[in-house]
Amino acid sequence: MATVLLILAVGFGVAIAAGLLLYRVSARRTRGTDGDQDLGADGVSAATSFVGGAAAFLLGVLMLSALDHYNATKDVVAQEALALSEAFEYTDGLAQADEQRIQRDLICLMRSVATHSWTAAEAGNLNGSDNTHAWQRRTTMHANAAVATTKAQEDSLGGVKSNLISAIGSGQQRLLAAHSNLPLALRSLVLVSILVLTAMLTALLRGHPSRAFAISALAAVLIVSTAMIATLKTFDEPFTQGDGVYIAPRAINAALSRLEVTYPGADWRECETLGRS
Predict the structure, then answer these.
(1) What's the distance, CA 100 to chain centroid?
(2) Closest C-alpha among 226, 197, 205, 191 to residue 20
(3) Helix, coil or strand: residue 90
(4) What would the mean pLDDT of 70-87 be, rounded to a whole number?
(5) Residue 113: closest CA among 255, 228, 18, 210
(6) Range 205-209, long-range pairs (CB < 8 A, 24+ positions)
(7) Structure pTM?
(8) If you average pLDDT over residues 236-247, what whole number do you get?
(9) CA torsion sign, 266 to 269 to 272 to 276?
(10) What's the pLDDT at 244?
(11) Is the distance from CB of 251 to CB of 110 less than 8 angstroms?
(12) CA–CA separation, 62 vs 60, rounded Å?
């Protein structure tokens, strides 16, 4: 976020300087003819309205896209937690040895997702967590090795496997959602539009009879534009802490807490680390 604010500050400074230069050049050229000719009389006002409308439209579209991305990521996180929780509950119908082994695997997998995987997401690491991947492989291996001797055990084992596959798929989607999905070209276009609008507004307001009004109007545009771009960035990167919008591992932790109460006989000891991250 600090980088974005720095870019905006520098950009606004350059745009304001360009606007003041535009005003001075225009004033020199018109001084010998009409004297106090209004800069907006040459169509600058219409152009400013067009640029402002285009920038507002683009910001609105990108804001909706970023909000959709945020809500979709929340759904993926919830689906991952739900799938792992259901896989755990399906172990009830397995043979005792398989039940205990797979329950232990799922406990450690869920803990790794809530810690190691979230750290990777916050860092924008598309490779994810080595520890989580290792626990996924171990859980899958034990599920595939489980033996079902009755129809009930077959159904339970099928539920474990299908939910485990669903959880792994949701985990992959979570990894991808850690990065912005807004094209760089569109973000650059919005930034350029806002900077051009700032320059044109500066040129128009420079000749306004009320200096206080001109400064207030320009400041309002800068503040609102900065707030919208900052909000756009926070919703588009939902795993970045400290920006006001953050998806925490609440769903997976809540599932773990519920399962620990519901299945006190499972192995809830500290989990070993299978990967470096």
Answers:
(1) 37
(2) 205
(3) helix
(4) 94
(5) 255
(6) 206/19, 206/20, 206/23, 206/39, 207/23, 207/27, 207/38, 207/39
(7) 0.80
(8) 81
(9) positive
(10) 72
(11) no
(12) 6
Four-point Cα dihedral 174, 179, 180, 183, nearest 10 = -110
Torsion of CA 74, 80, 85, 87, to 10 degrees: 160
Residue with tokens 């916050």: 122
Rounded Cα distance between 105 and 266, Å, is: 11
Which amino acid belongs to residue 72?
A
Q: Which residue has the tokens 């230069």?
A: 21
Residues 6+ apart with CB under 8 A from 183: none
Average of per-residue pLDDT across 120-147: 92
CA-CA distance, 92 to 98, in Å (whole number)? 10
Note the pLDDT tens digit of each residue in 80-100: 999 999 999 999 999 999 999
Identify which of 223, 237, 224, 222 has the alpha carbon closest to the alpha carbon of residue 176. 237
Q: Would you state the torsion angle of the CA atoms of residues 179, 182, 183, 189, taken in this order, to the nearest 10 degrees?
A: -130
